[in-house]
Structure formats: structure tokens, C-alpha cells
Write a structure and sequence with these properties.
The chain has seven helices and nine strands. With 272 residues, the chain is α/β, with parallel strands linked by helices. The longest helix has 25 residues.
Length: 272
């Protein structure tokens, strides 16, 4: 159940620390913090200092909320996210999305590191998420519903904004950025997949698999926010190409893909 009072308290605190209203929120995943270098930072707040905010414990997730300008647009950037495998509840890990909505932000950009399941993918490819499959065994909307916030049974036929995807593809062509487009499958983690799981997930229709994003998207759509999401393919779960995966390998691959993701998101923000 969403705690409206805590959401409002966090939102009012953040608003008291910044000088203008952000129009877009961006959540940075593993190894993708380089986007911050392009933000003209006006304020950076540690999660520890925001009332009711959880704290990230994962390497590569700094744990600060950044307000500033990206390509002339006021943005709020989560430099580090929360994961189900850290022991957070679904409601807790989507708490920031609820706060952003309370602040009036209606556009959300998500990024993550993911294992590639599509044989045509290469490590360090950037994939636009066009849809997802939820195999996390839970949902952030479980429990009593607040009809003032969203419907009991929210529609998910367009989980990821078609207009955002169309615009991103256009930017990719103009900027000569190699982009893949596919279905993201969300699992709990924290272990990487077995070879049999890779085969099964691809058979289900997934092009990439990861441990985040799905709960945030569900919450955002429930609240009426438009969502755009990207995966950096950091390892491959393709038969014949499966190798031992490590978090260090994920961060290294994400760093390689970072320039393209930064270029794409920066231009996308300016045109939304």
C-alpha cells in the first residue's frame, strides 16, 4: 500500500532543495553514471538525507539525487537505483517513482544493464525496451488500491511510450548510433542466469534479461507517467556464446556503451 504521507514528505523536501521544477526524471543503472557529466548540476542530495528514501547498496550505484540541466532541460537524476534482491519491498524500491509523480513529473527515462538473449546482439549494444515480461514473482501494486492515484487494474498495452521510442529511433539514425529494440524480461536476481534459463527466456520472447526496471515501469504507468527505457547489453546468454559473467564485466561493458547512451538520452531529453 502506498504511504501518501511519506511520499508527500519526501517530495516537499526535494522541492525545498531545488530552484526550479524538473520536467523529466532519469534513473541510471549499473555503470551508466556517465550521463551525470553532461548535467549542469545545481544540487546533489544524498539519498540518506531525503526523508523516507531507501539507500542503494550496489557497486556502481552512487546513491544521490541530482537536480540540474541536461541539454537545456530541467531534470532530476537518480544516480543509483534500488533492487528487489537487496531486500527492499516492491513498494520501497518504487518509492522514488511515487515521489517524482507527486512532484508533477510525468516523463520517466530508465536505464539498466542486461544480458543479451537475441543472437543478433553484441556486448555493449544499446537496446530500446519496447515491452517487458515480468518474472519477478511480485508486483508493486499488490495490496489495497488508492483510486485517487490510479486504477485497480491498470492497462499495460503501452508500457513503454510509442512516441518516445519513435523519437529515439529517429535520433539514433541521425546520430549514427547503433540501436537494438526488443523485449526485456525482469527477474529478481542477484545470481546470473543458468544456460537453461537463457534458453527458456528467449523462447518466451525476451531479447534481454535483467534485475530491475519492470517494477518502476509498472508503478510509473499506474500513476499515468510516460516511460522510455534502455538496456545496455553487458553479457550474452546466447547458446554457443555463454561465458562466465561477473559484475566487473557488466560495469566494463556498460562503460563501453556509455557514450552512445549519453548522446541518445541527451538529445531525447531536448526533443521531448
Amino acid at each position: 500500500m502506498l504511504d501518501i504521507q511519506k511520499i508527500k514528505e519526501s517530495a516537499r523536501f526535494i522541492e525545498s532543495q531545488i530552484t526550479a521544477k524538473p520536467t523529466i526524471a532519469i534513473v541510471l543503472g549499473s555503470g551508466l553514471g556517465g550521463l551525470v557529466k553532461n548535467v549542469k548540476i545545481q544540487q546533489e542530495i544524498s539519498y540518506k538525507n531525503i526523508p523516507n528514501f531507501p539507500v542503494s547498496t550496489v557497486q556502481g550505484h552512487k546513491g544521490t539525487l541530482i537536480f540540474g540541466e541536461l541539454n537545456g532541460v530541467n531534470v532530476l537524476v537518480m544516480n543509483g537505483r534500488f533492487h528487489y534482491y537487496e531486500g527492499h519491498s516492491m513498494q520501497t524500491l518504487t518509492f522514488p517513482i511515487q515521489v517524482f509523480n507527486e512532484m508533477g513529473i510525468k516523463k520517466l527515462i530508465l536505464s539498466n544493464a542486461a544480458g543479451g538473449l537475441n543472437p543478433s546482439f553484441d556486448i555493449a549494444d544499446v537496446m530500446i525496451i519496447r515491452d517487458h515480461i515480468n518474472l519477478m514473482g511480485n508486483n508493486p501494486l499488490m495490496g489495497p488500491n488508492n483510486d485517487d492515484l490510479g486504477p485497480r487494474f491498470p492497462d499495460m498495452s503501452e508500457a513503454y511510450s510509442h512516441r518516445f521510442i519513435k523519437l529515439a529511433k529517429k535520433i539514433g539514425e541521425e546520430q549514427k548510433i547503433k540501436l537494438q529494440c526488443g523485449v526485456y524480461l525482469g527477474v529478481t536476481g542477484p545470481c546470473y542466469e543458468t544456460p537453461a534459463e537463457y534458453v527458456a527466456f528467449h523462447a518466451l520472447g525476451a531479447d534481454a534479461v535483467g534485475m530491475s526496471t519492470v517494477p518502476e515501469t509498472i508503478m510509473a504507468r499506474y500513476l499515468g507517467m510516460e516511460v522510455f527505457a534502455l538496456s545496455v547489453i553487458t553479457d550474452l546468454g546466447v547458446i554457443g556464446q555463454i561465458e562466465k559473467a561477473s559484475h566487473e564485466d557488466v560495469l566494463n561493458a556498460a562503460a563501453k556503451a556509455e557514450p552512445n547512451m549519453v548522446k541518445l538520452v541527451s538529445e531525447l531529453v531536448a526533443q521531448l
